[in-house]
Design goal:
CATH class of the largest domain: Alpha Beta
Helix content: 25-40%
Family: Belongs to the DegT/DnrJ/EryC1 family.
Distance between the termini: 39 Å
Keywords: Aminotransferase, Transferase
Oligomer: single chain
Mean pLDDT: 97
CATH superfamily of the largest domain: Aspartate Aminotransferase, domain 1
Protein name: DegT/DnrJ/EryC1/StrS aminotransferase family protein
Shape: elongated
Bound molecules: pyridoxal-5'-phosphate
Pfam family, one: DegT_DnrJ_EryC1
GO molecular function: pyridoxal phosphate binding; transaminase activity
CATH architecture of the largest domain: Alpha-Beta Complex
Radius of gyration: 22 Å
CATH topology of the largest domain: Aspartate Aminotransferase, domain 1
């Protein structure tokens, strides 16, 4: 983030930081979302994320003008703030539409869930770290690569993604994945490289354009990682993974 920010200073572009996975994480010891190196940070509160509001998310900024603009866009471009109006108010009922906006308001019920989830954020992320440390330790002798953490960061650990060392096993990526699912271990694949999706292919991107992303896709599997995962369940994931890998 610091290096991207330095480039933004040099070339004059803006930074929107997609931190959808990263709430509760830190960068250089400071919470993700402080916009120290970005203009806007966004979080997702989709149900699978670290905390949820059932659906929805949050955009943060330290820039007053951007905050005002975001507030307007959220609610049809309408304001009740006299300072944003083009003339004096007709009366206490008055509002003005000063931009074309959307209905992006979060419901009060979702906000209540989010406020309650926020009180548990640290506890959730700490538990994810306990589980990750345990995975790191118990998986280290297997023919897989476990996640690496840059020393500048403290991850929210939304995901725990392993990469198969396919040259060291006699099973395919798909076979390992399907074996886990067949044993009721709900693994997943985050994510399919976007340039292989039809929308981007229609724009001219093609397979082979981003070989590292494609290599990642050919090896990656997200294994269960959520705060209520018990150690016994985690042991079962590990035992099943060993079977799946054929080791
Ligand atoms: C990196 C990233 N950005 C954006 C999104 C979209 O978030 P939402 O579904 O809350 O709009 C996701 C959701 O999976 C994500 O993982």
């Amino acid at each position: 983030m610091q290096a991207i920010h330095a480039l933004a200073q040099r070339y004059g572009f803006k930074i929107i930081e997609d931190a959808s996975h990263a709430i509760g994480g830190k960068y250089q010891g400071e919470p993700i979302g402080n916009c120290h190196y970005s203009d806007i940070t966004v979080f997702s509160f989709h149900p699978v994320k670290i905390i949820t509001t059932a659906e929805g998310g949050m955009a943060l900024t330290n820039n007053r003008e951007l905050a005002t603009r975001l507030g307007l866009l959220r609610s049809h471009g309408i304001t009740r703030d006299p300072e944003l109006m083009t003339k004096d108010m007709d009366g206490p009922w008055y509002y003005q539409q000063v931009a074309l906006g959307y209905n992006y308001r979060m419901t009060d019920i979702q906000a209540a869930l989010g406020a309650s989830q926020m009180t548990r954020l640290e506890q959730y992320v700490a538990r994810r770290h306990e589980l990750a440390r345990r995975y790191d330790e118990l998986l280290k002798s297997l023919p897989i690569t476990t996640p690496w953490q840059h020393p500048d960061g403290y991850s929210g650990l939304h995901l725990y993604v392993i990469r198969l060392q396919l040259d060291k096993i006699s099973r395919t990526h798909r076979e390992v994945f399907e074996y886990m699912r067949a044993q009721n271990i709900i693994v997943n694949l985050h994510y399919i490289p976007v340039h292989t999706q039809p929308y981007y292919q229609a724009m001219g991107f093609k397979e082979g354009d981003f070989p590292e992303a494609e290599r990642y896709y050919a090896e990656a599997i997200s294994i269960p990682m959520y705060p209520t995962l018990s150690e016994a369940q985690q042991d079962e994931v590990i035992a099943t993974l060993k079977e799946a890998l054929g080791v």
